[in-house]
Amino acid sequence: EIHLAQQLGASFGRVLTALAGGFNVPLDALPVTAAGEQAALQSVPAIDFAPAGLHELYEAQVQRTPAAVALLSGQQTLSYAALNERANRYAHGLLAAGFKPGQRVGLYMQRSVGRVVAMLAAFKAGLTLVPLDRNWPRERLNYMSSQAKLAALLVAAPEHAAELDASPPAYTEAAFADITTNGNPQLLADP
């Protein structure tokens, strides 16, 4: 830990020295690493990763460690498999409700397990998320939701949608509790 702290301190010092003459230095020109470190990093062969969405990377992790803890919030824990099952159900429900890949939905929830489930479900359904924090001023929330032309709000409770002036339809995870899923929605769309 001491070595890491020393490395971070040295990197910070190099960046400050580079900025001492002014702030017109492009970010990619800032000397974050020492010359020897840079050479070592460049000698490592590049790994070619196939492009994948967050939900696809998550699916791969579910296959590797289905019973491992994926999410911990207070006293609540979810395994990778359980979180995946909930997100798949929610995604199937959104698709059954008529949503099409690329449509924008507002994520209007406090930080919670439900919020993570909703985010993953939206990605699996190919939807575009617009984060809306319930603690933001009402004027800002109304402006953002109207400018984004949201197709829906993903909420923890239906009454939360009433907090916005002109809110689109609201959907909760609980609304799709009876949906039967056959796993991941397997969309061709890139979220």
How would you sum up this structure, described in words?
Helix content is 41%, strand content 13%. Helix 4 packs across helix 5. It has helices at 2-19, 35-43, 54-64, 80-96, 113-124, 138-148; strands spanning 69-73, 76-79, 104-108, 128-131, 152-155, 170-171. The protein is of the alpha/beta class and 191 residues long. The protein has six helices and six strands, in the order H-H-H-E-E-H-E-H-E-H-E-E. The strands form two sheets. The chain has a four-stranded parallel beta sheet with strand order 4-3-5-6, covered by helices on one side. Strand 3 (104-108), helix 5 (113-124) and strand 4 form a beta-alpha-beta unit. Residues 187-191 have low confidence and may be disordered. It is extended, with a radius of gyration of 22 Å.
What features would you highlight for this structure?
191 residues, alpha/beta, 4-stranded parallel β-sheet, two-stranded antiparallel ribbon, 6 helices, 6 strands, 41% helix, extended, disordered C terminus
Give the termini separation: 38 Å
Please indicate the percent range of residues in DSSP E strands (runs of 2 or more).
5-15%
Indicate the structural class.
Answer: alpha/beta
Cα-atom radius of gyration: 22 Å
Mind summarizing the main beta sheet?
Answer: 4 strands, parallel
Mean pLDDT: 85
Low-confidence stretches: 187-191
The shape, in one word, is extended
Instruction: Give the helix level as a range of percent.
Output: 40-55%
User: Biggest sheet: strands side by side, in what order?
Assistant: 4-3-5-6
